[in-house]
Design goal:
Blueprint: H1 8-15, H2 23-29, E1 34-38, E2 41-44, E3 49-52, H3 55-58, H4 67-79, H5 92-104, E4 109-115, H6 118-135, E5 143-147, H7 156-161, E6 178-181, H8 186-189, H9 196-214, E7 219-224, H10 240-250, E8 254-258, H11 272-275, E9 282-285, E10 297-302, H12 303-316, H13 329-344, H14 347-364, E11 371-377, E12 380-385, H15 393-405, E13 407-408, E14 410-412, E15 415-418, H16 426-450
Length: 451
């Protein structure tokens, strides 16, 4: 339906270029205008209330409208609204947040660098890896590994590491240095009779075969999400991470854990690397670090990773990288207060405690005529829906029906994905999935009539 003339929707179409849309379709239909947020809810410009079942973009841990974050931003804006961390300068909020991150992170991660988004952070990590290889006298060791269906961002380097065709097609990506191995999607990709450990061993063998084909001396690092988010919430099968890490260690390949979605409690522990026994050389965080109230990301790295970079900067006289907003004082002040709230309100514990109910309600959807299989961990999960004649059609239809029922979630293909704010309650989980069930019923009835 075409938006009314002079409405906010029509004005938006006239001037704004959006992310992740069919632009010509958007010109015809417009978008949903969200005006307010409170707790796990958002409200559109007609006043309709929605449960935000994806926490915005996998990110609003403490909910919408948290006054402490507004106050933290206001205080810092009044005191020091902007400064940088270039040229031997710093400021209090960036130092204090870096210290807090080191305190709560795996103990071998001892250095922090701030950027403004997960894409930007992963892009910089690629540059640092290349810089480090040169520092170590290994100029050929530059290739980066990732996985099909992985999502690591959309800048040129991080978009190349991403393994989703829509982020490559017509952008001339991926770069030649970026190579992709198999997706650990056990329910979809398992062989007949293959157990999870056997499947994981096969994934590790495929990774090793790729390394040997490319030449171990040419491969610097592998980027991987502990749980794959935008690929459809793909949860690693039993034995996967132990097998993958063994291969990387065998060939002296760094591991970068992309915790942009998983970090700060999403899996029921502070970091998903702890949930799955991952020991990364670098850990990339964003989204829930500030509940996305401010653009912020943090790269955490081990001393072993950092030392050659520091030595090379000393040899050259400079580490020739930086962004104007890196370590922005307002963003880091908000991030620090956000982490305090996560700790004080035990939101990591809340995710762990409510996970059985959340995953149980997802699993119950398998019994619906449109449900196939569910997966998840902590408070992130998905239900795979029976595909229609066109891939993704069922997912789009259910996503639209959920909006009518007052729930926002995300259909990735025919996978319906959920990642609610960590403050969600047991009653709100039931309300969300009750509405999802009604939406599934609506779509199933429509498909039955069409048949």
């Amino acid at each position: 339906m075409t938006p009314p003339p002079n409405s906010l929707e029509a004005r938006d179409i006239a001037v704004q270029v959006h992310a992740a849309v069919d632009h010509r379709l958007y010109e015809e239909t417009g978008g949903l205008v969200i005006e307010e947020g409170e707790g796990i809810y958002v409200f559109d410009n007609t006043g309709k209330k929605y449960i935000e079942g994806l926490a915005g973009l996998w990110s609003v841990a403490v909910g919408f409208g948290e006054p402490r974050l507004v106050e933290a931003a206001t205080r810092q804006m009044s005191k020091l609204p902007y400064y940088h961390i270039f040229n031997y300068k710093t400021h209090g909020p960036s130092v204090e947040l870096a210290e807090k991150l080191i305190e709560i992170s795996p103990e071998h991660l001892t250095k922090v660098h701030f950027t403004s988004s997960g894409s930007e952070a992963n892009d910089l990590v690629v540059k640092m890896i290349w810089y480090r290889s040169n520092a170590l006298g290994k100029p050929a060791k530059k290739k980066i590994l990732s996985r099909l269906k992985a999502y690591h961002g959309v800048t040129i380097a991080s978009g190349s590491i991403t393994g989703i065709p829509a982020n490559h097609t017509s952008f001339d990506l991926p770069l030649e240095r970026m190579k992709h191995t198999l997706t650990p999607d056990y329910p979809r990709e398992k062989l007949e009779g293959e157990s999870e450990p056997e499947f994981s061993a096969r994934m590790a063998k495929a990774l090793e075969d790729l390394i040997l084909a490319e030449g171990p001396e040419t491969i610097a690092a592998m980027f991987a999400e502990p749980v794959m988010g935008a690929g459809g919430v793909i949860v690693p099968p039993e034995g996967y991470w132990a097998a993958i890490q063994a291969v990387l260690k065998k060939y002296d390949i760094l591991l970068v854990a992309d915790e942009v979605i998983c970090g700060f409690g999403r899996t029921g522990q502070m970091f998903a690397s702890q949930t799955y026994g991952i020991t990364p050389d670098v850990m990339v965080t964003s989204k829930q670090i500030s509940s996305s109230y401010m653009p912020l990301s943090a790269i955490l790295m081990s001393e072993e990773f950092f030392a050659p970079i520091a030595d090379e900067s000393h040899r050259l006289g400079i580490f020739g990288h930086g962004y104007t907003a890196s370590g922005h004082p307002v963003a880091t002040a908000v991030g620090l207060e956000n982490l305090k709230i996560i700790e004080e309100r035990d939101l990591v514990g809340n995710a762990a405690r409510l996970s059985p109910q959340f995953l149980g309600r997802l699993k119950a959807l398998e019994e619906h005529p449109l449900g196939l299989w569910s997966r998840g961990v902590g408070l992130i999960g998905a239900i795979e829906l029976a595909p229609g004649a066109t891939p993704g059609a069922t997912g789009r239809a259910v996503q639209a029906a959920m909006l009518e029922e007052g729930v926002i979630a995300r259909a990735i293909g025919d996978a319906l994905c959920f990642c609610p704010p960590l403050i969600i309650t047991a009653e709100q989980i039931d309300a969300m999935f009750d509405a999802v069930t009604r939406a599934l019923d609506t779509v199933a009835a429509t498909l039955s009539q069409e048949a």
